[in-house]
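Async update (no meeting this week)

Hi team, since we skipped the sync, here's where things stand on the single-chain job. The sequence we agreed to prioritize is pasted below, unchanged from the tracker. I ran it this morning and attached the output directly underneath so nobody has to dig for it. Comments welcome in thread, and please keep replies under the output.
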Amino acid sequence: MAKRHSRRFMDVLKKVTRAKLWTVHEAIDTLKQISSAKFDETLEISIRLGVDPRKAEENIRGTVVLPNGLGKAVNVAVIAKGEAAMEAEKAGADRVGGEDLVDEIAAGWSDFDVLVAHVEMMKVVGRLGRTLGPRMPNKKSGTATEDVGDAVRQLKAGKVEYRVDRQSNVSVPLGKLSFESQKLCENFQVLMGAVLAAKPSGLKGIYLRQVYLSSSMGPGLRIDVANVRDVAGEKTLAA
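Output:
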């Protein structure tokens, strides 16, 4: 059955030319102009990559700190003991605990956006694998670390994770539509620069296939890949 959109969405759709290729600046300005939601929508980027995530070397994943943050408070819980726990508290963690916190999470407590764990606690945290799923702390995302204080500070400052899914797509929030356009462009530049830099050295074929920008309640606007590379600071148009 075809997906049915609301009248509001269809009215918004009439205001844009979806068939065109947009520049990053055009798309951001347009999404800001046509927004009619009763809340501050989030600008989101969706990237289609020419990789096979089943291959370890093509399983694109990493983190970046967006220079202008996400425009929302990030609730960070930390599993640590002793000095590490005190460092997490000083850094602004919303909740800090040891085995007691692990037990609470296992029992269903989940009032956090990101869970950070000191590496020495990972043996205890390991039993939360099924409960946490993709929210499980890990070294690649920097959420399983010896420096929990620094991890908390980065997350509070706007650190986001980008990760290719099974369909070779990457989706990441870039901030609130209420941000100045230039600040959203700067967040785009940093995120996209990191994704481009993560291109596997041995990859054959086109790496960056499609890029879309959308808002929480708005349409997806396809961005000109050449403009994406230019904004991200990559001067070459090679695949």
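Quick observations from my side:
The longest strand covers residues 42-49.
Strands lie at 42-49, 61-65, 76-79, 95-97, 114-118, 144-145, 159-163, 169-176, 208-215, 221-222.
Reply here if anything looks off.
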